[in-house]
Structure formats: C-alpha cells, structure tokens
C-alpha cells in the first residue's frame, strides 16, 4: 500500500505498495504547521510523482543551514539561509542485505577488498612520508576498538586500528561476519563504493544541503532532529555511545555498535537514523569554511552543490568528502555529531566501522544494472 504520513500538515510520501491509508502525528511545537506551510510547499495527491520504493519525497523549501548554539563547531558557522528543490531520499540507510544484492548482481569489489594503491595514498600524505611495509598494503579497513581505559581524546589512533581483512562483509575484522546483521546499515564502504551502489540503483548521493534539510524533519533552530533535549523522557531517540568514551559502553540504548534500521524513532519527515547509528556520505567536497564562503555568495545558497574542491587546515594534503549524521560512537563528552548541523570531512577512499550511506533522487528513473566487467 501507499502510505500518506501527515506530520503536522506536511504530507510525506513513503513507498509501501498500492493501497492507501492515512495517519497523523500531532506532537509538534505550537505554530510549526503554519511555518512549514509557508516554507515548504508540498505536492498534492494529484501532483505527486510516482513513488520509488523505500524512498520519501521531501518537498523543496528554505531553511537555516548550520548551527550557532553552544557546542556547535566552527565548521557549522555561520548559519546561512538555503533553498533546495524537492527530492527523494531513502527512508533509511542502505542495509547489508541491500548492498549484498548490488555486489551479487555486479561482482563489485569494495575499496576495502582491493589492495591499497600506495601511489594514490601518498598523494594525500605529507611529502617524504615513507612507504609502509607491503603487509600493510593488503586489503583492509579501519576498525574501532575500545581502549582499556581513559585516553587523550585528541588522539584518535588510540581507538582506530588498520585491520587487514576488514570489509563490509567482515566489519570488525577477518573473523567477523554478517550473521544477524542483514537489517543493519552497511559499513566499511568508501565514498566510491557508495557512488557505485547509487548508480546501480539509478540514484545518487544527497548533497549536504539536501541531507541536512531532510534530517531536520521540518523543525527550525532545534539542536536535534526531534527537538532540543537529547532524550524524550526515558526514551532514547538515537543510537550513540552511552557510558565513558572510548573504553566503557553501557549499552543503555540497547546497542554496542550498529542497530537495525528503523529501531529508533523517525524524524518529522518519516526518515530513520538521520542522527546516530552511522555517518552518511554526501556528494559534496568538504571544506571547513563552506558556510563562511556561502555567506559571502548568496547565489551559492540555491540548491548548493558544495565547493569545487576540498580543504581542511588539519589535513592540507588530503581530499575529503562530507559525512553527516554522527554514529554509534558519538558521545557528548567527545562529539555531539548526531545533530543535523554537524559535519566532518572524510577521505573518499576510506571505509570505517561507523560510516554508511543512503541515496537520493531528483526524479524517478529506471535503474541501469552495472556491467560486471567494469
């Protein structure tokens, strides 16, 4: 059936099949319906496009991108007013089961399943960096491993380990597998892997602006996708680190690592895990000063496609793409990146324990199967 979910007068279309039913949610702040009606024009039943399975239609509109609340990072400032056209976005992160269909149909090998290309890697390192032993250039990926106790939170090497044999099929190392994880988000996928999947599915990655617009779920100026408080009473709204990072996870939210998609409440647009669980790749190059540059060029705030190149003073030799949403590793004492405005740059050839993705679509198209020989 096709389900029309109405979040405070804003229809959100979700693919479910042929029948139609309707439900509503009224737990919204006073005045929200009026604001959304003014800012987010919505398609009517007669105007709505055909519905791609598992995707939600987000009507275009204008919103405040970024954050200047206490605790917001410099790369989220200043706030800029941005307008995006309507688009489709996946209801949840791409799962292991969905990614498996892609690899079985195409024979695709992810970045983590191929030997490391030293000639490419050294371009992103300081000049003169020595080549590591060949044994470290075998297929592998970055795996999170808790520390034995408190450590300097500025030294991420304390809990990230380059692990030979780690990949999307072996997320924590060569002896791990995906048993019982079909409905968990796929991880250990690079930006290139996410793009390859999206092309096979007839989709694309969302822009950073689209992602943040969708993540906010229609709320303006709120710290989180669901409001200003981290929890709703005793209810956890997101899969994050509970306890003391990075050595003690109490699993109060029910999970030590990833959780199945749709485990935690959806936002106002009916989207799941737009905060926590896994970071999401976006199409944009990452620059630490993106917001400042947009503020100086208002024309760049209309359907932003991101900067033409990446730059981060912390990693001047490294190219990076935007990741959004935070993950199961986020903790308020370390980072609070499960906020819609939070952003960071990640090398596009890097797979990690806490990075996945979801796809977007500007208009309905027919997927074109990828050639196995490519």
In short:
The chain contains six helices and 18 strands.
Question: What layout of secondary structure does this protein have?
Answer:
Blueprint: E1 2-7, E2 10-14, E3 20-25, H1 32-39, E4 55-58, E5 61-65, E6 80-84, E7 87-90, H2 96-106, H3 118-121, E8 140-144, E9 160-164, H4 191-200, H5 208-216, E10 231-232, E11 235-236, E12 243-244, E13 248-249, E14 279-285, H6 290-296, E15 321-324, E16 343-346, E17 355-356, E18 360-361
Properties at a glance:
374 residues, paralog of FGE (formylglycine-generating enzyme), four-stranded mixed sheet, disordered N terminus, globular, three-stranded mixed sheet, alpha+beta, 13% helix
Q: Please indicate the percent range of residues in DSSP E strands (runs of 2 or more).
A: 15-25%
- Report the major sheet: 4 strands, mixed
Going by CATH, the homologous superfamily would be paralog of FGE (formylglycine-generating enzyme)
Estimate percent helicity.
Answer: 10-25%
Rg is 20 Å
Termini gap? 37 Å
How many domain units? 1
Strand order, sheet with most strands: 16-15-14-17
Number of helices: 6
> Unreliable segments (pLDDT under 50, ≥5 consecutive)?
1-46, 366-374
Walk me through the structure.
This protein is of the alpha+beta class and 374 residues long. The protein has helices at residues 32-39, 96-106, 118-121, 191-200, 208-216, 290-296, and strands spanning 2-7, 10-14, 20-25, 55-58, 61-65, 80-84, 87-90, 140-144, 160-164, 231-232, 235-236, 243-244, 248-249, 279-285, 321-324, 343-346, 355-356, 360-361. The longest helix has 11 residues, at 96-106. The model is unreliable at 1-46 and 366-374 (pLDDT under 50).
């Amino acid at each position: 059936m096709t389900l029309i979910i109405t979040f405070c007068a804003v229809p959100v279309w979700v693919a479910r099949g042929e029948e139609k039913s309707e439900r509503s949610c009224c737990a919204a702040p006073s005045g929200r319906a009026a604001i959304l009606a003014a800012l987010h024009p919505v398609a009517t039943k007669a105007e709505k496009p055909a519905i791609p399975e598992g995707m939600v239609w987000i009507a275009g509109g204008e919103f405040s991108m970024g954050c200047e609340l206490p605790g917001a990072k410099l790369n989220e400032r200043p706030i800029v007013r941005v307008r995006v056209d309507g688009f489709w976005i996946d209801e949840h992160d791409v799962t292991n089961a969905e990614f498996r269909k892609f690899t079985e149909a195409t024979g695709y090998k992810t970045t983590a399943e191929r030997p490391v290309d030293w000639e490419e890697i050294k371009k992103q390192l300081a000049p003169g960096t020595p080549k590591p032993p060949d044994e470290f250039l075998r297929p592998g990926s970055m795996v999170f491993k808790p520390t034995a106790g408190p450590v300097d939170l500025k030294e991420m090497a304390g809990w990230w380990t380059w692990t030979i044999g780690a990949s999307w099929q072996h997320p924590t190392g060569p002896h791990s597998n995906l048993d019982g994880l079909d409905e968990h988000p796929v991880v250990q996928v690079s930006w290139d892997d996410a793009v390859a999947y999206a092309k096979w599915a007839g989709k694309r990655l969302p822009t950073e602006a689209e992602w943040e617009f969708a993540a906010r779920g229609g709320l303006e100026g709120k710290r989180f996708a669901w409001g200003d408080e981290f929890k709703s009473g005793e209810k956890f709204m997101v899969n994050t680190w509970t306890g003391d990072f990075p050595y003690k996870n109490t699993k109060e939210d029910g999970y030590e690592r990833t959780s199945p998609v749709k485990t935690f409440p959806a936002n106002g647009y009916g989207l799941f895990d737009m905060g926590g669980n896994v970071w999401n790749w976006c199409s944009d190059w990452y620059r630490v000063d993106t917001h400042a540059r947009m503020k100086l060029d208002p024309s760049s705030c209309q359907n932003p496609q991101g900067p033409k190149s990446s730059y981060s003073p912390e990693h001047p030799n490294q190219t990076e793409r935007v990741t959004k949403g935070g993950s199961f590793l986020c903790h308020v004492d370390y980072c609070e990146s499960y906020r819609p405005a939070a952003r960071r740059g990640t090398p596009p050839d890097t797979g990690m324990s806490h990075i996945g993705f979801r796809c977007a679509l500007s208009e309905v198209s027919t997927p074109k199967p990828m050639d196995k020989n490519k």
